Amino acid sequence: MSNLIIGLTGGIGSGKTTVANLFIALGVDAVDADQVARDVVIPGTLSLSRIVERYSDDILLATGELNRAKLREIVFNNDAEKQWLNDLLHPLIREKMLRDLAACDSPYCLLIAPLLIENDLTKYVDKTLVVDVPEEIQLTRTLKRDKSNETTIRQIMKSQITRKKRLASADYIIDNTSENLAVIEESVFQLHQKFTELASN
């Protein structure tokens, strides 16, 4: 297990994946909470069967996999459905996430989680790193990247912690406003050196 766990978070469209991939390219092990969330609903799992029972086969893609975009549309417009889904999946996600973190063996490990603060996952990390951009950039980048409409994206943003609270919870911040990848690479490299040093103490 790694000596140090860094929680990497940021709002939708902030560039968490870009930043995470730069750390991973430096040899850092990472556990992605979104990937874990996908893993616990793969075809054949009990949790996927429960979701199909509730929403019918219409919630599946032609491949038999969960239609995550369709599910997202349902739960982000209905608090009761969102609560039901969270009650089903969060314990499973947490259990697998902790197993995966325990298997990390680089000097420090990343826990990549959009809802790190909201879901109280900060108790599993030693330091919190926030990838930050202004909210209008979040919206613009997400509209460009996803097929969701603006209303859904704004609801997702609203469901996440405010930018001000997220920054207040940060031990470290990467400003990802720049479109110049070299600027972000330099920020990541400096933090990589800092985290490696922290892990060795």
Structural class by secondary-structure content: alpha/beta
Overall geometric form? globular
The main pleated sheet reads as: 5 strands, parallel
* Number of domain units: 1
Neighbour order of strands in the largest sheet: 2-3-1-4-5
End-to-end span in angstroms? 15 Å
Helix segment tally: 9
Strand content: 5-15%
Calculate Rg over CA atoms. Answer: 17 Å
- Helical content class: 40-55%
Q: Spell the H/E element sequence.
A: EHEHHHHEEHHHEH
Query: Residue ranges: pLDDT <50 for 5 or more in a row?
Result: none
Account of the protein in words:
Helix content is 53%, strand content 12%. With 201 residues, the chain is an alpha/beta fold. The chain has a single domain (4-200), classed as 3-Layer(aba) Sandwich (Rossmann fold).
Which key phrases capture this entry?
five-stranded parallel beta sheet, 201 residues, Rossmann fold, 5 strands, 53% helix
Brief digest:
By secondary structure, this protein is α/β, with parallel strands linked by helices. It has helices at 16-25, 33-39, 46-55, 68-75, 79-102, 135-145, 150-159, 163-168, 181-200, and strands at 4-9, 29-32, 108-112, 127-132, 172-175. The protein contains nine helices and five strands.
